[in-house]
């Protein structure tokens, strides 16, 4: 009896083990579409686009056309007339220059009505207008006016500066057609005031040929012309000391100054300088040499120690018109 009960207990203990063994042999009948408790992530399709984790901002593309026809960041610069030694109360040339410098194109053109020998200023007014408008028709007028301007010598300081500036602006326009030029005032000063030379002249204020340097007899009387660029002469200085020599001609604004040299008073030479409304540079020297053909005889004929030269004397002419220093100075600036 005890043996039977013992076997019964052992059998009951083996039941769970047999049940587990049998469950392992039973096939899995779970449907294919049923979800699993912990589903694995689906396989990634190699052909599907990947989604970036972050997108960096890109620079915006410039608007408008690109390439050679694109608008330039900075327009070409054309050098405009520099500051000149002029003011609102100066004579005509100075007033015109001031209008041009300040780009008062219409006022400059109007000031030329009825005037003579104003080709250089008419061209400048046309260039001024073209720079302001940028219109091709205005540039064509400016180009024609510049081409019609007569050659201006460097001795005409203001006009030479104006002509050179106008020609340069037209040339830059031709090199940059269709581009708006940017005018900027040129550095420096158009015509720095300076005294650069001394010329012996005859009684008709014409230069005496054959003189190596400005010289004349110790007794005085030689007429000399002060060369350079000056506007309004204040003092005349001999060796740095204010003097009062005889003014033969000139002395007004923009006028060339002609002096009669005094006796030497024992000096072998005298250094001449002048003052102006602003600083003026340069000095010139006159030498007292009795052997130099510097004195003038009747009719403006030079004499050498009282003996007429072998060349045929020049005929007497009416007094020469004194050139304006502003319009026609006597030396290259």
Task: Note the topology.
Elements: H1 2-25, E1 77-80, H2 92-101, H3 105-111, H4 119-133, H5 136-147, H6 157-175, E2 182-185, E3 194-201, E4 215-216, E5 223-229, E6 236-238, E7 241-243, E8 246-249, E9 258-260, E10 269-274, E11 284-288
Parallel strand pairs: 1-2, 4-11
Antiparallel strand pairs: 3-5, 5-9, 6-7, 6-10, 8-9, 10-11
Helix pairs in contact: 3-4, 4-5, 4-6, 5-6
Write structural notes for this entry:
This protein has 333 residues and is an alpha+beta fold. It is built from six helices and eleven strands. The strands form three sheets. The protein has a five-stranded mixed β-sheet with strand order 4-11-10-6-7, with no helix packed on it. Strands 3-5-9-8 form a four-stranded antiparallel β-sheet, with no helix packed on it. Helix 4 runs antiparallel to helix 5 (136-147), helix 4 (119-133) packs parallel to helix 6 (157-175) and helix 5 crosses helix 6. It is elongated and about 70 Å long.
Give a quick account of the main beta sheet: strands, pairing sense, barrel closure.
5 strands, mixed
Principal-axes geometry comes out as elongated
The share of residues in extended strands comes to 5-15%
- The string of secondary-structure elements, in order, is HEHHHHHEEEEEEEEEE
SS summary, helix count = 6
Structural class: alpha+beta
Measured distance between first and last alpha carbons: 150 Å
Radius of gyration: 49 Å
Number of DSSP strand runs: 11
Strand order of the largest sheet: 4-11-10-6-7
Q: Could you estimate the helical fraction of the residues in percent?
A: 25-40%
The mean pLDDT is 72
Unreliable stretches: 20-73, 293-333
């Amino acid at each position: 009896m005890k043996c039977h009960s013992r076997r019964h207990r052992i059998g009951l203990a083996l039941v769970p083990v047999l049940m587990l063994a049998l469950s392992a042999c039973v096939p899995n009948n779970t449907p294919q579409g049923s979800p699993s408790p912990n589903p694995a992530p689906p396989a990634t399709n190699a052909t599907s686009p990947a989604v970036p984790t972050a997108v960096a901002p890109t620079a915006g593309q410039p608007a408008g056309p690109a390439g050679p026809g694109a608008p330039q960041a900075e327009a070409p610069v054309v050098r405009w007339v520099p500051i000149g030694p002029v003011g609102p109360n100066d004579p005509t040339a100075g007033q015109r220059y001031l209008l041009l410098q300040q780009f008062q194109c219409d006022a400059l053109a109007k000031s030329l009505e009825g005037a003579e020998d104003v080709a250089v200023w008419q061209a400048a007014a046309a260039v001024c207008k073209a720079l302001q408008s940028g219109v091709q028709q205005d540039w064509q007028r400016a180009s024609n006016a510049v081409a019609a301007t007569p050659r201006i010598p460097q001795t005409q300081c203001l006009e030479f500066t104006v002509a050179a500036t106008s020609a340069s602006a037209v040339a830059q326009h031709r090199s940059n057609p269709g581009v708006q030029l940017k005018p900027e005032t040129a550095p420096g000063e158009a015509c720095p005031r300076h005294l650069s030379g001394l010329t012996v002249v005859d009684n008709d204020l014409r230069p005496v040929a054959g003189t190596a340097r400005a010289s004349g007899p110790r007794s005085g009387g030689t007429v000399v012309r002060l060369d350079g660029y000056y506007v309004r002469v204040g003092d005349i200085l001999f060796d740095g000391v204010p003097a009062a020599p005889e003014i033969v001609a000139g002395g007004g604004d923009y006028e060339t100054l002609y002096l009669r040299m005094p006796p030497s008073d024992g000096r072998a030479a005298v250094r001449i300088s002048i003052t102006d409304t602003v600083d003026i540079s340069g000095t010139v020297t006159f030498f007292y040499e009795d052997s130099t053909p510097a004195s003038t005889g009747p009719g403006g004929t030079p004499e050498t120690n009282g003996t007429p030269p072998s060349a045929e004397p020049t005929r007497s002419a009416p007094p020469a018109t004194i050139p304006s220093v502003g319009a026609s100075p006597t030396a290259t600036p």
